[in-house]
Design a protein that fits this description.
alpha+beta; 6-stranded mixed sheet; about 30% strand
């Protein structure tokens, strides 16, 4: 099942209106692209949910040891500076960046772009849509992002001001100096 896309450009939802829309439709996963398209995201299947949980737990363990930032699940919506309201599968924000937010901003949809994200392509995701989403994150200030594509057994690595790099699975991915010492071993998925 693919996301349902609604064109809401003429409506122009404010941050608060989008937040309220999500609250009254809490069983739906909603995103708003920087172009003004409202996406209704389908729920995950078992394999994708298991893969996502593995990725979050690996990052969580590293972060617990380093205490350098905050880890988020795919249920978190970030209000990006470019107008998008997006939910990466796995996200990490530097601690000092997180701590600069008000209590209300931390409670609602944080008004920032994560420093590091992982998007995991599920069987039904269109690769082009995820690639566009990764570019939207880069435009909003993302430092490092991984688009893991089990269907093609590869990872696309996105960095600020650099061309996309493609690594084939299995692979050991280093989060470089963004998350010092974090290395993710990705077997063939």
């Amino acid at each position: 099942m693919n996301p349902i896309t609604l064109n809401v450009k003429p409506v122009k939802l404010t941050d608060e209106e989008f937040y309220q829309l999500c609250q009254v439709n809490e069983s739906w996963r909603l995103e708003l692209t920087a172009k003004g398209e409202l996406l209704i995201m389908p729920p995950l299947g078992g394999k994708s949910g298991k893969r996502e949980a593995r990725l979050i737990s690996k990052l969580w363990v590293w972060n617990e040891e380093t205490n350098l930032g905050v880890v988020f699940s795919s249920s978190t919506v970030f209000r990006l500076p470019n107008g998008g309201k997006r939910s990466p599968d796995v996200a990490w924000v530097k601690l000092e960046k997180w701590n600069r937010l008000t209590e209300e901003d931390q409670e609602k949809f944080p008004p920032l772009c994560p420093d590091f994200i992982i998007e995991l392509r599920s069987r039904t995701d269109k690769l082009e849509d995820l690639q566009e989403k990764m570019l939207e994150y880069l435009d909003a200030g993302l430092i490092l992002g991984w688009l893991i594509n089990p269907q093609q057994q590869q990872v696309e690595i996105y960095r600020q001001n650099q061309d996309k790099e493609i690594i084939y699975l299995p692979a050991n991915l280093s989060a470089e100096d963004v998350l010092p010492g974090f290395i993710l071993d990705i077997p063939i998925m």
